[in-house]
Amino acid sequence: MPVARPETSDARVIAHVDMDCFYVQVEQRKQPELRGLPTAVVQYNEWQGGGLIAVSYEARRCGVKRSMRGEEAKAACPDIQLVQVPVARGKADLNTYRTAGSEVVSILAQSGKCERASIDEVYLDLTDAAESMLADAPPESLESIDEEALKSHILGINREDGDDFKESVRDWICRKDADRRDKLLGCGIIIVAELRKQVLKETEFSCSAGVAHNKMLAKLASGMNKPAQQTVVPYAAVQELLTSLPIKKMKQLGGKLGTSLQTDLGIVTVGDLLQFSETKLQEHYGINTGTWLWNIARGISGEEVQGRLLPKSHGSGKTFPGPRALRSLSNVQHWLNQLSEELYERLSSDLEQNKRIASTLTLHATAFRSKDSDSHKKFPSKSCPLRYGVTKVQEDAFNLFQAALREYMGPFGTKPQGNKKETWRITGLSVSASKIVDIPSGTSSIMRYFQSQSTIPSCSTSGCLQEHVAVTPSASESCSEQKSAETEAAMPPDKDMSITDTSPDLDNSYGNMDMVPEKFTCQDVSCQSNEATEFPTQSGSNKGTQTKTSGQKIKEKSRGMHSVVDIFKNYSAAPRSKQETQEDSTVSLTSNRGSLSSSTSHSSEMNKEVGDRRETEWGYKVGEIDQSVFDELPYEIQREFRSFLRPNKRPNAGKSKGDGSASSGIAHYFPPLKR
Ligand code: TTP
Fold first, then answer.
1. Same domain, 320 and 429
2. Given CB 3.0 to 4.6 Å as the disulfide criterion, which of 13, 47, 131, 485 pairs with 126?
3. How many Å apart are CA 35 and CA 38, to the nearest integer?
4. pLDDT band (50, 70, 90) for residue 80
5. Residue 19 Cβ < 6 Å to ligand 1
6. Cβ of 125 below 6 Å from ligand 1
C-alpha cells in the first residue's frame, strides 16, 4: 500500500545501531568458551601485554578500560582472558572484524536505507518501514509486542512509582492520542528490536541502538544504554537530553570547535548554546557553522542517511612505539611494502567483488626528530594518484614518504649541525586509498572499459592492461616489464602534477641510506598543523588541488602517472552523487578557525565559504575516508582524526553507560560457559 511521505523531517525514523564490544564478540564467537568471561582483545604488540582495543562488559565491570595494557588489565581483573588480534604481515589483520561487520550490515540493509558508518556502526532510515507499519499494522492493533521492544528506554517517559517498566513502554508505544511523530517512533521501536534480534540470531552478535528523528539524536541515544539495549528519543525529550549533554560529547564537537566553544564562549553543555542567538554564533564561527550550532542546540539536523554499504576508503597502518620506532629508510620501505601489500589486497577484492576503483593514495606517518627544535611539527601527509599494481602502490607509498620526510626535516635535512647529526624516528605509518568510484555499470570488465576509452592508447601487449588492474598482485607484477606501455594505457596522455623538490643537498643527508629521489608525482595533503577544521567539500571538485610548499615547485609534466580515476572523470555516470559529495567534510588544517557542517541544507553555502578561504589550499576530503579505516591507523593519527570524525562514542548525557548493571536484555543470551 503506498504511503504518503511525512511533511516534516521530524517525522523521520532513524536508527543508529552500534555493536557491543565488537572485536570481543567476534573473538567470542570464534571461541565460545570465552562467552560471559571477562575478555579483552589486545593489539599485536607484546610490550606490557599489548594495548587493549576492545573490552567485554564483564571486564569493564572489573574496572578494565580500553586505555590499559594487558598487564594492567590482569592486575585489575586477574581472570581476564586476553585475546590477541589476528596477525598478518607482522601487523594486526582486521579482516575478520571487517567481514563480521559486513554480516551485520547485510542483515540490517534489508530494512531500509542503510549507511555503514564504521566497522561496527550502521545508520538506518526506517521511515518507510515505520509508515508502512503504522498504516497496515499499528502497534495498538498487535496482539502482543515483543519483549525486546518493551525493554526499550524511552527518554522522558513519565512513570509513577511502582509502574511496571514494560507496561509503561507498551502504553507509550500504543497510545492512541500520540502525535504522528511518536506513533512512527513507536513503530521504529518495534522494528529495531526485531532487527537486533535477527542480528543476534544470525550472527550471534549483540548490539545496541538509538531510535530518533535524526541521525544526530539516534547516535547520541545508541550509546546511552549498553550493551544490548535500545534507547529512544521522542521529540518531546530532545531538549532535556541536550540541556545536560556536555558539548564535547556532541558529534563533531569533540575537537577544536568544541574546545573553542568551551573556552571562547564558556559553553559547557549543548543546552548552553541556547543562550546565543544565531547571529551571535555566526559572528563567532561563520554563517554556516553558526547556523549549524544553532540548529544542533535544538536537536535539528538535516543529515540524511546515505545508502552506502561499502567503505569509502581502505587503509592499512601500524605503530612503532618506543624502541621500535623506525630509523632508516630501508626499514620504512620494508613496512610500507607490507602495508601497501595489505592495502592492495583489499583494493583488489573491492575491485573484484564490488567493481570499485580507488583513485587516491595517501600516506600518513607520525614521527619525531632528535634535537627537535620544533617539537610540534607534524610529519606531513602526502597523497598522489593511485596506480593499480602492488609494486606500484609500494613504490608510490615510498616516494610519498620520502617527499614528506624531506619536508619534515626542512631544507637542511639531516645535515650535521655542529658535531651531531639530526635524525628522525617514525612511530606510525599508514597508507590509505580513497576517492573510490564504481566502474560504470554496463561495463562487463574493467579491461573492456579501458579499451573503450578512445583517449587511451591501447596496450601493446594483449592482456597487459587487464593484468595491470588485475586482482592479484602477482598478475600485476608480471606486467612490470611493460611498465611504460601499461602506464600509458591506463592513463590519458594529458597533464599530471609533479612536485620538484629543490631542497639543497638533501639527498646526501639521509644518513648513509638510500638516496631520496629528486622528483616524483605527489600532492600535498594539508595536514601540517593541529588546526582540525571541518568543512564540507567543494562540490564534486578537487578545487585547488595544488599546493606549493616552500622550496617546492609545482609544474605540469607529462609523466604518464595518472590515476585510474582520470579515465573516469569525464564519464557522466560518475557514481558519487552531488549530495554525497556535498556532505563530505574536507579537512583543511591550514585554516585559522574551526568551521563545520554536517547538514546538507546549508552545505553549498558553506562550500562557498570554505572555497573562498581555501582557493589555493588543497585539503583532502575526510568524508571520503571511512571511519573504520581509522581503527587501523596508528593511534597518534587516530587521535588526531577521531577528534572530529568520530568524536565520542559514548554520548551519555551524564548517564552511566557500559557498566553492565542495567538490565541487559539480549546481552544475557549467552550464559558463561565452563572453560
Ligand atoms: P567501539 O564501537 O568504539 O567500541 P566497542 O564496540 O569495542 O565497544 P562499545 O560496546 O562500547 O561500542 O569500537 C569498535 C571496535 O573498533 C572495537 O571493538 C575495537 C576497535 N577499536 C580499535 O581498534 N581502536 C580504538 O581506538 C577503538 C575506539 C576501537
1. yes
2. 13
3. 8
4. very high
5. yes
6. no
**Could you tell me the three cell numbers for 386?**
593511485
- The domain spanning residue 364 has which CATH number? 3.30.1490.100
103 catalytic? Reply is no
Over residues 531-566, the pLDDT tens digits come to 222 222 223 333 333 333 333 333 333 333 344 444
Element (H, E) at 358: strand 356-369
Q: Is 631 helix (H, G, I), strand (E, B) or coil?
A: coil
Closest atom, ligand 1, to C-alpha of 23: 18
- Return d(Cα 254, Cα 244) in angstroms, integer: 16
pLDDT, tens only, 170-221:
999 999 899 999 999 999 999 999 999 999 999 999 999 999 999 999 999 9
Q: Do the beta carbons of residue 139 and residue 169 sit within 8 Å? A: no
- Give the distance (Å) from ligand 1 centre to CA of residue 21: 6
For 40, the domain range is 19-92
Cis peptide before 227 (omega within 30 of 0): yes
Residue 322 lies in a domain: yes
Residues 355, 395 within the same domain: yes
Whether 136 is covered by a domain: the verdict is no
How many domains does one find in the chain? 3
Residue 22 Cβ inside 6 Å of ligand 1? The answer reads yes
Q: What distance in Å separates the CA atoms of residue 433 and residue 453, rounded to the nearest whole number?
A: 24
Domain containing residue 281: CATH number: 1.10.150.20
Residue 430 Ramachandran class (φ > 0 left, ψ -120 to 50 alpha, else beta): beta
**Which of the listed residues 22, 58, 225, 626 should we mutate to test ligand 1's pocket, taking the one with most ligand atoms within 8 A of CB?**
22
Ligand 1 touching residue 632 (CB < 6 A) = no
Distances (CA, A) of 59 to 30, 54, 85, 180, 491: 18, 10, 17, 42, 53
**Does a structural domain hold residue 507?**
no
Give, using CA atoms, the residue closest to atom 3 of ligand 1: 649
CB atoms within 10 A of CB 85: 21
Q: Which of the listed residues 19, 91, 206 should we mutate to test ligand 1's pocket, taking the one with most ligand atoms within 8 A of CB?
A: 19
Do 321 and 433 reside in the same domain of the chain?
Answer: yes
Distance 22 CA to ligand 1 centre (A): 6
CA distance 64 to 77: 7
403: in domain: yes
pLDDT of residue 359 exceeding 90: yes
Q: 119 in ligand 1 pocket by Cβ < 6 Å?
A: yes
Residues 6+ apart with CB under 8 A from 208: 17, 18, 20, 222, 223, 225, 226, 227, 228, 229, 230, 231
Cβ atoms of 270 and 297 within 8 Å: the answer is: yes
Most confident among 43-57, 124-138, 461-475, 655-669 (mean pLDDT): 124-138
Which one from 27, 121, 342, 617 is the annotated catalytic residue?
121
d(CA 620, CA 231): 35
* Distance of alpha carbon 18 from alpha carbon 33, whole angstroms: 24
Q: Are residues 350 and 294 in the same domain?
A: no
Clarify whether residues 326 and 432 are in a common domain: yes
pLDDT band at 243 (very low <50, low <70, confident <90, very high): very high
C-alpha cell read off for 475: 598478475
Its sign, for the CA torsion 232, 238, 244, 250, is positive
How remote is the CA of residue 67 from the centroid of ligand 1, in Å? Answer: 11
- Mean pLDDT, the chain, integer: 71
What integer is the mean pLDDT of 643-655?
Answer: 38
Strand order in the sheet with 230-232: 113-118, 121-125, 14-19, 207-212, 230-232, 153-154
Query: How many angstroms does the Cα of residue 212 sit away from the middle of ligand 1?
Result: 23
Short-list 411, 319, 433, CA closest to 366: 319
Using CA positions, which residue lies closest to atom 7 of ligand 1? 21
